[in-house]
Design brief:
GO molecular function: oxidoreductase activity, acting on the CH-OH group of donors, NAD or NADP as acceptor
Protein name: 3-oxoacyl-[acyl-carrier protein] reductase
CATH topology: Rossmann fold
Low-confidence stretches: none
Largest sheet: 7 strands, parallel
Keywords: Oxidoreductase, Plasmid
Structural class: alpha/beta
Helix content: 40-55%
Order of helices and strands: EHEHEHEHEHEHHE
Family: Belongs to the short-chain dehydrogenases/reductases (SDR) family.
Pfam family, one: adh_short_C2
CATH class: Alpha Beta
Mean pLDDT: 96
Bound molecules: nicotinamide-adenine-dinucleotide
Length: 260
């Protein structure tokens, strides 16, 4: 490719890469030349019966899938050490996440813990394993956390999810400044509303309302999120440290108002 978006020779791990945003990220990084490991607790197949790694291999790329529940610290350490030993880890995309709706009064201990154990604890375990490996190797690296606009602004009726994504954003900033001097760039992407299985729960009236609140009037495609992840995984982002990039059609910037 010959550009600084070229990821040939790099090894990337994408958590939750079986479907949705993670699938688009994994395919995009592989198209840029990276060898990609998809680490997901389930190996979801597309309608055509292909897994994400099947799709990457069919495009001439290098990929493998491993089953991993990121909320288990010992499982994460074993899997990340195995990947690091075989391919090294240059890029980690912490994408796996889960959502639950509910105000504080409606949220049980179990659902609060479930949201934090994946979105926050799981991201911490994967990040720690990758950072230890990157420090040992001394060659720097890239870590991209998939947060959410819900971590930057309250989102009515999603108490646990907003709290978890807010924690993830400040975690990104903290790890970003702790390891910037070692050449490890840690940054976050905050997607707005993206067409995936996660948002399939929204009915037409909610979709229209969210579109109306969004300055460009559209939801994102998973590919649009993956394009920003590619930038943050590449040499083009070498001077970004603890940054959060919203990919939301302007939703955080302002609300369109119809006058007259
Ligand atoms: N879709 C949106 O509108 C949107 C908006 C903002 C942020 N996000 C974030 O983007 C990320 C991806 O979302 P998506 O819409 O593609 O979701 P999705 O539900 O379609 O996919 C999530 C993937 O993560 C995997 N996963 C969940 N828990 C896991 C665990 N414990 N261990 C390993 N893998 C696990 C699932 O198996 C699945 O493949 C999430 O972190 C989500 O919070 C999504």
């Amino acid at each position: 490719m010959g550009t600084r978006l070229d990821l040939n020779g790099k090894s990337a791990v994408v958590t939750g890469g079986s479907r949705g945003i993670g699938r688009a990220v994994a395919i995009t990084l592989a198209d840029a030349g990276a060898r990609v490991t998809i680490a997901d607790r389930s190996d979801a197949l597309r309608n055509d019966g292909l897994s994400t790694s099947d799709v990457i291999r069919s495009r001439g790329g290098h990929a493998e899938s491993v089953l991993l529940d990121i909320s288990s610290s010992p499982e994460v350490d074993a899997t990340m050490n195995d990947i690091a030993g075989r391919h090294g880890i240059d890029i980690l995309v912490n994408n796996a996440g889960t959502i639950v709706s509910g105000t504080v009064a409606e949220t049980s201990d179990e659902s609060w813990r479930a949201i934090f154990s994946v979105n926050v604890d799981g991201t911490f375990y994967c990040t720690r394993a990758a950072i230890r490996h990157m420090l040992n190797r001394g060659a720097g690296g890239k870590i991209v956390n998939i947060a959410s606009v819900s971590g930057l602004r309250a989102n009515q009726g999603f108490a646990a999810y907003c709290a978890a994504k807010g924690a993830l954003i400040n975690f990104s900033r903290q790890v970003g400044i702790d390891y910037g001097a070692q050449g490890i760039n840690v940054n976050a992407v905050a997607p707005g509303f993206v067409e995936t299985e996660m948002t399939a729960m929204y009915d037409a009236s909610i979709r229209h309302a969210l579109e109306a609140q969004t300055p460009n009037g559209k939801w994102a495609t998973p590919q649009q999120i993956a394009d920003t992840v590619l930038f943050l995984s590449s040499g083009l982002s070498d001077h970004l440290c603890g940054e959060v990039i919203a990919v939301d059609g302007g939703w955080l910037v302002g609300t369109p108002v119809q006058v007259g």
